[in-house]
# Entry
Amino acid sequence: MGRLLDFLDDRLGIVSAWRTSMSGKRPPAGIGFLRTLGFAALTVCALQFLSGIALAFHYVPTAGLAYDSIRAFEQEVPGGAFVRSLHHFGASFFVVLAVVHLARVFFTGAYKAPREFTWLTGIGLLGIVLGFGFTGYLLPWDQKAYFATNVGTEIAGRTPLLGDALRTVLNGGDEVGPPTLTRFYVIHVVLLPIALLGLLAVHLMLIQRHGVAAPGRPVGDEGSPGLPYFPHHTLKEAIVGAATAGVLFLAAATFHAPLEALAEPSDAGYEPRPDWYFLAAFQLLKWFKGPFESLGTFWLPNLFVLALALVPFVDRTPERHWRKRKLATSLGIATIVFVATLTILGALDAPDNQRVLRHPLGCTETEKLGYLALRRARCLECHELEYAGTRYGTEDHDAPRFDELLAERYAFSTFDAVLRDPEGELGTEDMPAFDYLPDVERAAIWAFLRKLVPEKQ
Amino acid sequence: MDSNGASRRGFLATLTLVLAGVPILGAIVASLRSGLAPARVEKPTSIPLCHLEELPKGDAILGRAVTFEMRRGPLVENVSRMVFVTRGESDGDYLAMLGECTHLRCPIQQRTVSVGGRDAPLRCPCHGGVFSRTGEVLAGPPRAPLRRLELEMPTDGADIVHVRGL
# Structure
């Protein structure tokens, strides 16, 4: 055994690496559970890679199939629904842990010399995590995906000078559409993972190089070495990592990642909202009107990030203890209160979205076209439809229910004639004519309704 | 002899740089150019919107989803947009607007809201933009009126109104 280790160490240097960075390393005394938050974020990061690869093996990145491939993954693949929930809630956990880790580093003054670049790479990593969130929620191609991405790429389009180019590159054209999905997919599964791993490697190497800042001691005073990193601090990290994973598993097993109806750009009833971690930005956008618009879309968010990045270069005082850094501590608390207030205000402006009928899995191209045509023609604003135990549409109208209508013997020729000329066929002016629809769309609506309510034999 | 050797080495270094640099630079430029090129999108210029008699009367607003085929080279995709039509100043004068907020492209809703004691018929559900019947901004962050579209009235007894400029 010893000889094998010697053999490997001569060639790979793993034993000596273990000694210098683990068992032989003695971080300053007094570091506790607060210094494990970065590791907790790293744990979630690893889980995101795992669940993300599982999703990517089944996901089809085209506008026509993305939504159905996600639903098929949930319904047909063993454990699929759980894995998607894991990935969805994992994103939130990642954001929370990254922010809490950043707050810890800020309030303990750990970003001060010589650790300025560890902080800077950390800010970059937080930006990448938010980028993952933003590109990730377009991928299911549901209502939220489509409309939130419209807002997101339009905000990118407000960047001074580069805006138009940036928006065109992100959208793959002038507006959000099928090319956008392809691009966001590549950004989400190729570009951002490479950026994340690269920056993370530098972040971890810098942590190796400079070690943990001694709690409460000023710059230059690295305190007295405490117990060896392994197994003492690694045990704390393992406990926190395991607890994080446990809570995430519990969340994914209890709650289901949301999926709204298939994206339909002409849906004039939909009220878009971003994921919770962008609600502060959402709220901010409402306050800057007319000529001040770019303050909310560009200047304030970017100046905030810039200020954050410059913290270690502006704050040159040697003190690390929060009580001796009155200005920094108060600014930090004020920032947290401000962002939290914005987030709560954004959350209070809850959307008033109606339940939208979803097409069943396994629709043909025609049935899917019929589904979209039914939504575009807003048939369910007058007719009700009961499908799979849920009632869609409004009760305010006395138009016949689709499921009752089609349960009777009802032929396409009658349906088509009524759609073309309701007044002539039914003798009522209550129903508008749908003769403006192309023939294929009327036939497709019929095919879709028949898919939901099969003809009685 | 010495200077001769140094210049030969210098020549070889330059040659290597050029030989390696040209293809590498070429690959970078070509990848960026094709990668960042926007998809070339073609839309039909004129899209059927509604019948003549469906055009709004009085203060009514017609909201209609229009669908069309968007072509990216050989790829054809079915796309839809919301269009609002209202009456203009004079008789027989109509305005068509794209149902997309000019702030950050949220879907415009046909829902009455009160602005300074007056009713406004169109609003954006995101950041609070409110628009008049003619698409002018009445409140909220938007800076520009709703995007105007061109209506194409039927000729020779035909009865379908088309919309242009989507």
Remarks:
- The helical segments of chain B are 2-36.
- Chain B touches chain A through 40 residues (CB under 8 Å).
